Amino acid sequence: MFHRRVVPPVDFKYLIHMIKYLFIPLLLILLGNSAEAQLRLPQASPKATVSQTIGLTDITVSYHTPGVRGRQVWGKLVPYGQVWRSGANESTLITFSDDVKINGTALPAGTYSFFTLPESETNWFVIFNRNTKLWGSEGYNPAEDIIRVPVKPEAIAFHETLHYYFSDVEASEGKLNLVWEKLKIPFMISVEVFDKAVATLKADLAQVKEDDWNSYAQAAQFLIQNNKQHELALQWINKSIKIKENFYNNWLKAQLLAQKDEYEEAVNLTKKALKLGPKESKTFSPLAQEMERSLDVWKVKMHSRD
């Protein structure tokens, strides 16, 4: 005889209670962690980047921007005699695409952590360190410094937020300035322009069209302006004239020959350029007076050598 097993009725209230007790807290934890990972909030010291090309060298500064917020900065928040991250959060990074000089001290191309050392109110150092993975100055090792360069801080009007900016930018140098509170820390960055420019010009000219007289003229003009590599300049300007002779490339060749003290030929080429010029009045007119003045000077120099 078979006995029928009696299955007790499901207590749904108890089952729901257990689900709430065991699973819902776990689900909330998972959801909470997921939500926390996605939160994006304003930072007290937001990240900033500033870039500048000096000559043909690209320079980029990546940093965080603390505010004064009523605090005493120099000598307290930033103590004297201690290396400072020169920003907030991670160490400030500066990248140079080519070798440079910092206030005359050589620094190879690369990316560096940038620190400052305020020894006193008037004596500071800027420091370029090879370790780019630091949080602020934690783990900073002076043995990893590439260079230390003395700089002089300058008093300025109040700036609440720390920032970097470039100024006094010319073809071969420019100034990088760190500004915060009532202080500016400036230093000069010098770059080598000529050799890199010549290499770039050679590469570019290898790609120009056969009828592009102007590119060869511009390349020659760069060498003439720098009064260097006369033979290469002569090669390029002759190529320009061969492609299409005009007042401008004749005028450039005249300047080049004058640099080589070949005044008779410079005079002849200038006269030729003055005759060709009116055909291109828009570009000729701004140069006409300079050409006339040069012609007079070179005539005198030519006759003085007879």
What does this protein structure show overall?
- The chain has 306 residues and is of the alpha+beta class.
- It has two domains: 47-191, no CATH class; 194-304, Serine Threonine Protein Phosphatase 5, Tetratricopeptide repeat, CATH 1.25.40.
- 39% of the residues lie in helices and 27% in strands.
- The protein is built from seven helices and ten strands.
- The protein has helices spanning 12-38, 194-205, 213-226, 230-243, 247-259, 263-276, 281-304, and strands spanning 47-54, 57-64, 92-96, 100-102, 105-107, 110-118, 124-129, 145-151, 154-167, 173-191.
- The strands form two sheets. Strands 1-2-3-6-7-8 form a six-stranded antiparallel β-sheet, with no helix packed on it. It has a four-stranded antiparallel β-sheet with strand order 5-4-10-9, with no helix packed on it.
- Strand 6 (110-118) and strand 7 (124-129) form a beta hairpin.
- Helix 2 packs antiparallel against helix 3, helix 5 packs antiparallel against helix 6 (263-276) and helix 6 (263-276) runs antiparallel to helix 7.
- The chain is elongated and about 75 Å long.
- The protein starts with 11 loop residues before the first helix and ends with a helix.
